[in-house]
Amino acid sequence: MRFLVAGLLIWSFNAVAQNKTLTHDDFDRWNQINSSQISPDGELIVYELQPGKGDGSLHITSPNGKNLLDVPRGEGAKISWDSKYVVFKIKPQHADVIELRRKKTDEDKMPKDSLGIYDVAKKELTKIARVRGFDLPKESTGMLAYYLEQELPAKDDKSDTTKKKEEPKPSKAVSKDNGFHLVIRSLNSGTRDTLEYITDHQLAKRSNNFIYHTSGKDSTILEGVYYYDFANKTSRPLCRTKGKYKQLAIAEDGLQVAFLSDLDTTKALIRDFELRHWNMGKDSAMVIAKKGTEGIPSDWLVSEHGKLNFSESGSRLFFGTAPAPAVQDTTLLPEEIIQVEVWNYKNSRLHTQQNMELDDDKKKSYLAYFDTLGEKIIQLGSKEIPDVSIANHGESEYALGSSYLPYLKNISWDGFPLRYDIYSIDVATGKATLAKKDLLGEPGLSAEGNYLYWFNAADTTWNSYHNESGKSFVLTKDIPVTLADEENDYPNYPDQYGAAGWTKGDQHFLVYDRFDIWKLDPQSNAHPVNITNGRSNQIEYRFEDLDKDEAAIDPSTMVLHTFNESTKDEGYAIMKNFEAPKQAIQKAAKFTNLKKAKNAETLTYQMGNHQTFYDVRATNLSFKKPIQISDANPQQKDYAWGTVELVSWTTPDSLPLQGLVYKPANFDPNKKYPMIVNFYRLSSDDLHDHWGVFPHRSTVNAAFYANRGYVVFNPDVRYEVGNPGKSALNCVVSGTKYMIDQGYVDEDKIGLQGHSWGGYQISYIITQTDMFACAEAGAVVSNMISAYGGIRWWTGLSRMFQYEHGQSRIGATLWEKPDLYIENSPIFYADKVNTPLLLLHNDADGHVPWYQGIEYYVALRRLNKPVWMLNYKGEPHWPTKWENKRDFNIRMNQFFDHYLMDKPMPQWMAEGIPATEVGINKGLELVKE
After folding, report:
1. Which SUPFAM superfamilies match (predicted)?
2. pLDDT tops 90 at residue 693
3. pLDDT grade, residue 172 (50/70/90)?
4. Residues 468 and 429 in one domain
């Protein structure tokens, strides 16, 4: 009997442990995997865990799952090219930092990051205190560079008061302007060399030598740019004088360097930077380009903002040029300067857009290059052709030039895709040839630069332009299916499905339809070939790019991500030399973040579903017997985790729809559950997404609410152009009625929740029906008439295109169909609203002007309707700060609990929070009625 009682107690404990209820405090401790990587030899896997709040951790494992090292607070790891070392930062304890900040501790006395160096062979961890940052060569070995923080102030020695104190010698302080001390460490021997007052450096990709700038120490170390020889531990001065130095660059082999210098010590407003170049055999860096240099346009300057970089072989040094900027008359007093914007109807951009792009405009440069072999300068970009792309790691013979400037004004009402004029540019001469005018769609350059290519949105075809011959080709006219969105419901051209890319030698171009990959001949000498044939089984194939350093696709072995539209199952397939793909793995799960070791067949990926977190798994190209590497959230097993299922129904007008239903754990079909209907547009394809326990910025967390006793329903919504509001009403109400008919939903306890486009739809739906007990809507558009003439403040763009051709789906101007703008605007039906409404609209919203929320709020308030609005001051389209996201989730939860679970109102709902108490009183306490 004693053993039976003990067994029952154990069973009871486990049952309780597995049925814990989630709280908002759990947001803080649920982990995300911030990053994962594989060593080049495939023998190490490194990943980082980060909880919602507090200290994260770094983990180093082998592909067989053996744990090698756990580092509390480790982050930002890099693996050496020879896979012998893992280097990372170690953060101070979060709690300690918070406590010191509360005490107003001076910044220089705050704890700083440390550096961790893990020797894989010796299994030894070396720690170095007070490190700002570090750098490793990408494809070279044995060297580590790291910056030291400023030393802590020395403590006074009060042990001998009779001893005369010596005055400390004044020394130059390390700082962002003066630079910091850079330590060069041999990873193999541990020897170190320290360079002082370094403001910038650039490591070579395939060498341990590098270039750096120092602000100087004294007469022994002058300001300037130096070349560091790692083997000999020596620094060679390349330009040693006071001045301004920018854009340090070094060739991949470390044998050439370049930088910009301005040695003018006057306060001239226009800075005339010089481009300097050095290679082995020269004593110092020589000026190769400046204002007036042959090849640079007349009166143009070498741009201080144009990034310098060498082509892979080092034969080309790319840099930027720009016209001299307009400057202010310095003799004017502040009150004499007229600050007036002139809005001219002929301007291609609104002033709001110009203001948002002002910094980019001031820093705009035009691509040029220095031929390091022929020692000449070729200008490629111009005001007429502002954007230039080079292929094949800067080695291609031709470049793509493009300009949307002639069509820039039309963006205000046409929106996207943009229109372009595109050019084929002979890189050797800089000569540009017009390849296509008024192209509706974004162009590209093939992997090796032999072709320009584009998708023409107007006729949904892929096209190419052969740079050498100047001939254009339509590549997809013989394909029997469309290569653009088959389900497009926007008043606009359908979006393309995209392209996988070009194979080696620019031999083939691979593009997508809804399901398949098509192999195209770039000159249409052969018919397009469907190489996957997934349509018959409703399987979508998409190429996984596992080598970001290679521009071209190697067809010998291609890994394809697969998605079954019917079951929503995902996986990976292997294709060899364009033969039929073979499914390697497929599960009722979501697969993501596939990575491959550079020099081995080791793969990692993350897989999860509603029940399981996206933990890291290791495998090889067979995908057989994958090994789980991480266990990010073992605590999940202690909680009552719900389920998700796919449902289907038909609207009254015979439109078939799908949706997702999240049910509580231990679901009882005989009970009546409160339900939250959450939607945006289409969500049924997300059947296998995992909801981690974190405060979402704009939507209910389905797993969190299911754990707390709610059913959550995500219906798909499809639209009729001109009637977005009625379309949403039709889909959402019919789906909700379907759910009520299942028998387990309390029809008197159903709420709505959505944000932005979802928020708009909710604000409309509650003007048409009283079937919902309450609703939360974020960043709503309540008045399409005022919104049509508004600004997207994040970009400065006019909002017109959104209604004429975009998401709002009116499909006409305000003056062409004013009735549609009125019919779809909730504010005109505010008197019909009987549903308690919680609005979220922040005053720094750059997507939807927050006065849209205000308009709806004041209208409902005028009508004495139950309405609340949350404004997280200074936040954009949604809360971004952790505490604000957490607070929003608490308030939204309290709102739904009150109306759907009959819990008391919190103070902020019952009484509000006056402006005098904002930031002081949260008002979260429940009010007894």
Report:
1. alpha/beta-Hydrolases (SSF53474), DPP6 N-terminal domain-like (SSF82171)
2. yes
3. confident
4. yes
Cα–Cα distance for residue pair 667/458, rounded to 1 Å: 50
* pLDDT of 9 above 90: no
In this prediction, residue 170 carries a pLDDT of: 52
Residue 1 pLDDT exceeds 50: no
CA angle, corner 108, sides to 103 and 114, nearest 5?
Answer: 105
CATH number of the domain that residue 660 is part of: 3.40.50.1820
Q: Which two tokens stand for residue 823?
A: 């019919």
Rounded distance between C-alpha atoms, residue 554 and residue 601, angstroms: 15
* Residue 102 contacts residue 60 (beta carbons within 8 Å): no
- Let me know whether 430 and 539 are in one domain: yes
Domain count, the chain: 5
Statement to judge: residues 371 and 388 lie in one domain? no
- Residue 7 in this model has a pLDDT that exceeds 60: no
In a domain, 595, yes or no: no
Distance of alpha carbon 823 from alpha carbon 179, whole angstroms = 62
* 548 & 562 share domain: yes
Position 15 confidence tier, pLDDT thresholds 50, 70, 90: very low
Answer for the pair 51, 28: CB distance below 8 angstroms, yes or no: yes
Residue at 410 is within a domain: yes
In whole angstroms, give the CA distance from residue 703 to residue 693: 7
In this structure, is residue 518 part of a structural domain?
yes
* Burial (CB count within 10 angstroms: exposed 0-12, middle 13-18, buried 19+), residue 892: buried
Token code pair at residue 824: 């779809």
For residue 224, pLDDT beyond 80: yes
Of 703, 722, 752, the residue at which a domain comes to its end is 752
Q: Per-residue pLDDT tens for 795-826?
A: 999 999 999 999 999 999 999 999 999 999 99
Joined together, the tokens standing for residue 669 give 């079909």
In which residue are the tokens 């308009």 written?
Answer: 855
Task: Taking the CA atoms of 418, 422, 428 and 430 in sequence, report the sign of the dihedral they define.
Answer: negative
pLDDT digits (tens, 9 = 90+) for 854-897: 999 999 999 999 999 999 999 999 999 999 999 999 999 999 99
Indicate the DSSP class of residue 846: S
The verdict on 138 and 210 lying in the same domain is yes
- Confidence bin at 3 (pLDDT 50/70/90): very low
Interatomic CA distance for residues 608 and 632, integer angstroms: 12
DSSP code string of 685-750: GGTT----SS--SSS--HHHHHHTT-EEEEE-----TT-HHHHHHHHHHHHHHHHHHTS-EEEEEE
Mean per-residue pLDDT over the chain, rounded? 95
Of 278, 379, 268, 271, nearest to 321 by C-alpha is: 379
Q: Does residue 167 lie in a domain region?
A: no
Q: How far apart are CA 95 and CA 53, in angstroms?
A: 10
Whether this model's pTM surpasses 0.70: yes
Domain that holds residue 737: 1-30+633-752
Return the closest-CA partner of residue 833 out of 752, 908, 735, 747. 752
- 318 shares its domain with 443: no
Shared domain check, 552 and 522 = yes
The whole-angstrom separation of Cα 58 and Cα 71 is 5
Among 241, 259, 293, which residue terminates a domain? 241
Is the pLDDT reported for residue 162 higher than 80?
A: no
Distance, first Cα to last Cα, the chain: 49
| 117 contact partners, CB below 8 Å, separation of at least 6 | 85, 86, 87, 125, 126, 127, 128, 144, 187
Question: Based on C-alpha coordinates, what's the Rg of the chain?
Answer: 31
Mean pLDDT, range 490-517, rounded to an integer: 98
In the predicted structure, residue 12 carries a pLDDT above the cut 70: no
* CA distance linking residue 677 with residue 713, whole number of Å: 5
pLDDT band at 151 (very low <50, low <70, confident <90, very high): confident
Give me the residues paired with residue 906 across strands.
926
**Identity of residue 232:** N
Q: Are residues 809 and 799 in the same domain?
A: yes
- pLDDT tens figures, 714-750: 999 999 999 999 999 999 999 999 999 999 999 999 9
Tokens matching residue 866:
């139950």
How many secondary structure helices (H) and strands (E) does the chain include?
14, 54
